[in-house]
Amino acid sequence: MSTFSDPRVALVDATLKSVELRLNSGTAGNLSLRHGEGMLITPTGIPPHALDPEQIVEMDFAGNWQGRWKPSSEWAIHARLYQTTSAGAVVHAHPDNCVALAALRRPMPPFHYMIASFGGDIVPCAPYACFGTPALAETVIAVMGTTYSACLMASHGIVTTGADLTTALMRAEKLEMLARQYLLACAGGEPVLLTPEELVEVHGRYGSYGQQ
Ligand SMILES: C[C@H](O)[C@@H](O)[C@@H](O)C(=O)COP(=O)(O)O
C-alpha cells in the first residue's frame, strides 16, 4: 500500500491493489475515503490502470461535485455509510467467490470463527436492488447498520468499511478468502456452524486480539 500522504494518490494505489488482489477487474468496483465534510471517491467507468489522482472526485454526501470527472455510480453507498457509521474508508468490489455466494442471496454463516471479525455472527447479504440506485445504498446500510464492517450484495458484489483504506481493503481480501473456503467446504458436504456459545467466546477473544 502507498505511503504517500496525498489521499488521492492513496486511492489510486488502493484501486490498483484491489486488482492485484483479484477483488476487481475492468471497471468493477469503487473506493472512497472520508474527507472533511464529504468524501474523495473514484470516478465512474475508468479502469484502474488508466486512473490518475487528478480524476479522484471530491464530493459531499448529497451527491454534489464539481469538475471534469463524474463520481462512481455507487457514490450513494459510500455517502450513506459515512453518514451512518464512523468509517474512514469504503471499498466496493466484485470478487469471484463472494459474487458466487451473493448470487445465492444468503448471508455467509459462521462456518469459520473469522466470520465474527466482521462484527456479528454472520456476514449479511443485502437484498437485490439495481446498481447505482439510492435503493441499493439503503439496502446496504440497512443490513450493515453499525454492527457489520462487511456485507454481500445480492447478485452484485461486496462492501467493506474500515478506519482507513488498508483496513477496508484487507477486510475485502479476507471476505473473499472466507467465501472461497466456504464454497470449498460446501462442495464436500454441509459445513458445521459455530454455536451461539462458541461465537460469544470468539467475540470475547477478538475484543483483545491484535494491536489494540
Ligand atoms: C455497472 C458498475 O459496474 C456497477 O456494478 C458498480 O457497482 C461498479 O462496481 C463500478 O461502477 P463505477 O465505475 O460507477 O464506480
TrEMBL record:
InterPro entries: Aldolase_class_II_sugar_metab (IPR050197), Aldolase_II/adducin_N (IPR001303), Aldolase_II/adducin_N_sf (IPR036409). GO terms for cellular component: cytosol. Pfam families: Aldolase_II. One of its GO terms (molecular function) is L-fuculose-phosphate aldolase activity. Keywords: Lyase, Metal-binding. One of its GO terms (biological process) is pentose catabolic process. Its EC number is 4.1.2.17. SUPFAM superfamilies: AraD/HMP-PK domain-like. Residues 9-183 form the Class II aldolase/adducin N-terminal domain. Gene3D superfamilies: Class II aldolase/adducin N-terminal domain (3.40.225.10). This is L-fuculose-phosphate aldolase. The lineage of its organism: Bacteria, Pseudomonadati, Pseudomonadota, Alphaproteobacteria, Hyphomicrobiales.
